[in-house]
Amino acid sequence: MKKVLLLSGSPRASGNTAQVIGECARVIEALGCKTERVSLAGRNIQSCTACYLCAAEGFCVLDDGLDEIIAKLRESDGFIVASPVYFGTARGDVMAALQRIGMVSMASDRFLSWMVGGPIAIARRGGHTGTIQEMLMFFLINDMIVPGSTYWNMVFGREPGEVWNDTEGIETIRRFAENVGKLVLALERTKS
Fold it and tell me: pTM for the whole thing?
């Protein structure tokens, strides 16, 4: 069964970012794909040190739990990353995680190549598009496939649960998740 990994980059385990990821999972599962949700809440993700040991080892030597996520990605066909917006950009640990994941992929077996996915930004007021653009660089440089939606992948909300008031944002995210799931399934058909 095809699988999509969904990463919540919020320090709040049940906040808006996790709720949006949950909605993406619901939509993708309805299409017949398996999903797995991973959260950065409670983790202390370090920045890449450019040691390049991942080229020889095939994994990151920094011991902070990111290799568990990398192992899950190697078994996945899709990858959605959602981040809250902090001062107009993605959270620092989200970008640190993406940079290290990308480094391991490029230095080893290029497991991200042709994986389907994309970024989602959640914020109270602004900074969504800059955050999406910042995270999108990860997907594009790693030879990944990013489907569109009916608008940018952004949702407004500050306090947990406020994202559900942004009906256009939620519908945009649902369509994006649907497109990820459908594309994962369509790509499988071309391989057989």
Answer: 0.96
Count of domains for the chain: 1
15-45 pLDDT, tens digit each: 999 999 999 999 999 999 999 999 999 999 9
Residues contacting 66, CB < 8 A, separation 6+: 43, 45, 60, 97, 100, 101
Phi, psi angles (nearest 5°) of residue 24 = -60, -45
Task: Name the token pair of 29.
Answer: 């599962």
- CATH of residue 42: 3.40.50.360
Give every CB contact of residue 139 below 8 A, 6+ residues apart in sequence. Answer: 117, 118, 119, 146
Alpha carbon of residue 40 to chain centroid: 11
Structural domain range at position 150: 3-191
- Rounded CA gap, 45 and 61, in Å? 12
